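Q: For a teaching handout, I want to show students what a protein-ligand complex looks like in token form. Below are the inputs, and the small molecule is zinc ion. Please produce the holo structure.
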Amino acid sequence: MKKTIIYSVMTLSLLTNLYANEDKNSAQIMQEAFAKMKAVAQMSDKNQKTDNTNVTDANSTNVSAFTLGKYGTFKFEKANDNVYIMHGPVVSPNKENEGFMNNPAVIESEHGLIVVDPGGNYNVGKKVLAEIEKVSTKPIIAVFNTHKHGDHWFANKAIVEKYPNVDIYAHKHMIEVSKEGEADVWYGILNRATKGNLEGTKEFAFPTKPLVDGDTIDIDGQKFVVIHPKVAHTDTDLVITHENSKTVFLGDNVMKGRLGSFDESSSIFGDIELLEQIKKDTNYTLYVPGHGMSGKKDETIDPFLNYLKVLVEEGQKAYDDDKESYEVKDEVLKKLKWMKDWDAFEKNAAAHLNKAMLEMGERELESQEDEE
Ligand SMILES: [Zn+2]
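A: Here is the structure, written as tokens, with zinc ion included.
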């Protein structure tokens, strides 16, 4: 009822505008009027949540936008030649983000689409898939998963449901450990964090095509090369370069705006080594982190790399002074205060410092064994 009145008022003002703006053409005026009608309809929608009347809006293709409460609306945006990226919210998995916090990417080839890290569960995957279809209605012909953490690959399930024969590439060790129980561990973590949004994710859609360091893959004219550092963010990482567009998918070896955790399979020293190696290559134009905004090489890699270097530098001083990480933690965090707004900074930076110092101990032991 209210809407009928609103539309009548809008029609009246539209007619008034038609007569009042002789310097504008009628198409322009119609367009403006429709935009106003749309805005008013949206406002009235907000005010009357109980009103189920459907607003048909010929101008909008956004009817089923992927929206996550206070985190806003997510869609794929063109980031490089034929590469589209949806940057997820840089926060830990929770109920409101439904477990979506990574950066799914789509590469468009002549006959299909190639997806990198579609997201963290089946339900999110269905929404990401709907957004992929707004980029192009070509079929999905391949998927890459950067590592074993479920927030990146559990949404394979939604893609496999629609494309049962799709090839899913990951490092061979990622496939092994995921099947051996890592997937179940991550299912538990994400299901608890999202208060049950993992429903439908099992049976897991594991990757089907194992890769090793240095493999080159050609998919419908799109060339990819993968780097597998033995240990960096985990022991299952792939850094994927898309040669056609000169894009590097870094996985969680780089995060921006959010500190994830380094688990027991990872290495802070290994990650530094990997990032130093990647930085030497000047051939690429776009770098996509596992979490946070994509960008040019230095702006994407340096904040996280510098962070890791501070941990090692300050950790080494404490280690040499026979101090424990908790004794120097506050001092080290002060040196990193430029990162204080990063999600999970305090919690994870302290844990990372501790890990860096543990690795120092292990490295010292190893070098002593080598000498013997
Ligand atoms: Zn990860």
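A: Two things your students might notice: Residues 147, 149, 233, 252, 260, 290 surround zinc ion (CB under 6 Å). The longest helix spans residues 345-371.
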